Amino acid sequence: MTIQEQILNAISEAFDKTFNHQVAADSLTLQPTRKEFEGNYTFVLFPFLKVTRMKPEDSGEKIGQYLVDHCAVVSGFNVVKGFLNISVNEESWLSVFQNLFQKENLGQLPPKDQKVMVEFSSPNTNKPLHLGHLRNNFLGFAVSEILSANGYEVIKANLVNDRGIHICKSMVAYQHFGEGETPESGGLKGDHLAGKYYVLFDKAFKKEINELVEKGLSEEDAKKQAPLMLEAQEMLRKWEAGDEETVTLWKTMNSWVYEGFDATYTKMGVSFDKYYYESDTYLLGKNIVEEGLEKGVFFKKDNGSVWADLTAEGLDEKLVLRGDGTSVYITQDMGTADLKYEDFKINQSVYVVGNEQDYHFDVLFKIMRKLGRPYGQGLFHLSYGMVDLPTGKMKSREGTVVDADDLMQEMIDTAASHTKELGKIDGFSEEQAKELYEMLGLGALKYFLLKVDPKKRMLFNPQESIEFQGNTGPFIQYSHARIASILRKADQIGVNYTAEGFDGLSHIEEGEKELIILLNNFEKKIAQAGEELSPSVIAQYMFDLAKEYNRFYAELPIFSEENEKVRSFRVALSAQVAKTLKSGMKLLGIKVPERM
RNA sequence: GGUCCUGUAGCUCAACUGGAUAGAGCAACUGCCUUCUAAGCAGUAGGUUAAAGGUUCGAGUCCUUUCAGGAUCACCA
C-alpha cells in the first residue's frame, strides 16, 4: 500500500469514527502540499464541512489528530484555512526509497494484454521530410515508447503515400528536365532529388499558367489546361493501368526516395514495425461501401455517388464513393482501418496526424463505429498543432520549409561548437565526441518539440528556439552526466551504495525528501502520459526531476560527507535519479551521455 | 457563414483535471567555481490568466456572450 493510500484509508476511518460518516477511501484525493506550507500532502476540507458541521479549522484539527494517533506514516499536521497539511515521517520516505531503489524494471508497468498500433510519419514520396514531419515522428515514436511502458504491445506503423497526382508531378518533371540524373550522379539524397523535381514541376506549371492567362484564359481554366498538368494526369492514368514504362520510372524514383528516408529515419532514431503503402491500399474500402449500403449506414444519390449521413452525430453528409465508382480518400482509410485490424487484431489504433485533419478523422471514426467495428471504440486521432516559422506557414512547393536533414545537422553542428567552446571533450576520442554531438543536438531538438502539449501549435525560430540551457534536453542530459561522474567516483573510492549501505539511516534532509517524492511519481507520470498520449507530461517531469537534483547537488555534499550511511544514501539517491532520467528520456527517444 | 482548436510574464511553456499568494525557462539585473562537471545553483524584477457576465465555500480551469489567431466544411489528398 502506498503512503497516499494509507493516509486516505485513515482519513476515511476518521470520518467514520469521528463524524459517523461513511466515505470510501478511493473517492478521496490528496494533493501535494504547496512549497510555502509545511507538510507533504494536503487534504482539502471544504467539500466535507456539511458532514463535519464544524468550522474548517476545527474539522482539520479533528481529522489531523486522528491521523497522528492512528496512521503510522503520519508524523504531524497543520491546518491553514480549509486545508489540512499532513507531514509524513522520515522512516516512511526512506522505505519508499528502499522500495524504489530495489525495484526491477523501473518504469515498466505491468502488461495490459492489449495491442495498439501507432501510425505516424506517413510521408509523401515526392519530397524530403521537413520540420513538421519531425514533430510528427518524434511524437509518434515517443507515444509508442510510452504506451509500451504502460504495458501495451505496440506496433509502430508507417503508411507511405507513394502514389497519386503529386507523385506523378515529380515524375513528369523528371522526364522533362532530369536528363537521367541519379542520386549518385547528382550527389543528392534520393528524397531531395525527388523534391527538386517536384519544385521544378511547380515552377514550370506556373509559367504555363501565366502564358495561358496572357492568351486570355481564366486562371481556373489555365490550371486545368496547362500541358504539364494534363501530362501528370495522363501519367496517373497510365500508372493505374499498369503501364510498364510508367511503373518502372515510379519504382526507380521511389526507391531513391526510400534510401533517402532510411537515412533520415536512422538519424532521427525512429523505426517502424510495419510499412503500409498506399499503392497497395488505395483500392481498399469499396467492399465496405457495399457493406455500409446494406447496413443502411450509407445511402446512394441519383448519380450513383455514395454518402454517409452523419447529421444525427452533429456532422454533415460525407461522400464515401464517387459517382463514377472511384474511391476518395476516406474510402481507402476505411479499408486500411480494417486491414490493420485483420493484420494484427489490434485493440486500439492511434493516428498521429496534424490537426488540419481533425474533421476527417472525426468522420472516419464515427463511420467505423456505426459499422460496428470491434476496434471502433479504440480509435484515436493524436492531433497535433502545426509548427510555424517566424515567416509564417511552411509551404513545400514554395521552398519555404525547414528541411529535416538540414535542421538536424545544424543542431548537431551547434552542439559541437558549443561543447568545444566549453572545453568539455578532453579525453574524448573523435568517435566519442561525434556521438556526443549527435546526442546533444538531437536531444535538444526532440526535447524542444516534445515538451509542448501536442495539440498546441508552436512557433519555431531557427535562430532562437533551440537552447542548451534551462528547460532543454541538454540540461537533463547534463544532469545525468553529472551523476554518472559521481557514480564513477563512488566505484573508484569504494562507496557501498547498495541498500545495505544506508540501512538504518535516521535522518533525511528536506531536499532529499523532495527528490524521493519526485522519484516516486515516475510511474504515475508514465500512466498519465499514456492516458493523455502526451510526451510533454514526461518532458515536464524530467525537467522537474533534473532541476530538483541540481539543487540537491549544489546544497548537499556527497563525498566530503563524513557519516558513512549518509554518504552511501546520497550516492544511491543520485543513482536512482540517473536511472529515472535515463529511463524517462528513453520514452522521449532521447539518449543520455555518461560524460559531457 | 457553420463546426472545431487555441489565447496565461517581453518571448517559449507549466499549473496534478475545480483548491491556498498562478509557476518554470529564455532575455535583463545581483551574487556563487581552491570541495563531487558553472550546459549548474541562489536571488531581484516581470501578471486585471484576451474581455465581460454567470455557476459556488472557491474559477486560468466549467457555462454564456464578445474579441483575436488558426484549422476545417471539395465527386482534393
UniProtKB/TrEMBL annotation:
Keywords: Aminoacyl-tRNA synthetase, ATP-binding, Cytoplasm, Ligase, Nucleotide-binding, Protein biosynthesis. Residues 476-596 form the DALR anticodon binding domain. A motif ('HIGH' region) lies at residues 123-133. GO terms for molecular function: arginine-tRNA ligase activity. Residues 5-88 form the Arginyl tRNA synthetase N-terminal domain. It catalyses: tRNA(Arg) + L-arginine + ATP = L-arginyl-tRNA(Arg) + AMP + diphosphate. Its EC number is 6.1.1.19. The keyword Protein biosynthesis applies. Its main location: cytoplasm. It is found in: Cytoplasm. It holds the Pfam family tRNA-synt_1d. Monomer. Belongs to the class-I aminoacyl-tRNA synthetase family. This is Arginine--tRNA ligase. The gene is argS.
